[in-house]
Amino acid sequence: MKKTDEKHSFYEVFEVFSKRNFKSEFQHQFSLLAPNHEVAIVMAQENFMRREPVVDIWVVKRSDVRKLDPEEKASLQRLDNKEYRLTKGYGYLKKKWRQYEQQVLDEKEILSWGGEQGAPNPNSTGSNPK
């Protein structure tokens, strides 16, 4: 066995993911070689967290990360059409609301139906009763 093979059998590859703030998603940052999880976390903190502000990190062995086989990917296809369950967004609502607001009568328009301003009120006699 070569010396380089010994070195690689001792170290494992770890993938480091970080989260910049509480609302953001985890993002892959880099890979590193470490002998175990504890050392990998310390190395990730030293190499990454001191440079950029983060609220959380994940350190995962690359061998523990699994992807789907082609057969498994095929099972993800939808068997029936249920697009009605997908949210397409509500972008059209702003336009509909604007149209609605244009149709709503405002106070000045309603008051203008009462006749001309300054016209005498037919219910008043124009003189003070004594």
From TrEMBL:
<dbReference type="InterPro" id="IPR009359">
    <property type="entry name" value="PaaB"/>
</dbReference>
<dbReference type="InterPro" id="IPR038693">
    <property type="entry name" value="PaaB_sf"/>
</dbReference>
<protein>
    <submittedName>
        <fullName>1,2-phenylacetyl-CoA epoxidase subunit B</fullName>
    </submittedName>
</protein>
<feature type="compositionally biased region" description="Polar residues">
    <location>
        <begin position="120"/>
        <end position="130"/>
    </location>
</feature>
<feature type="region of interest" description="Disordered">
    <location>
        <begin position="111"/>
        <end position="130"/>
    </location>
</feature>
<dbReference type="Pfam" id="PF06243">
    <property type="entry name" value="PaaB"/>
</dbReference>
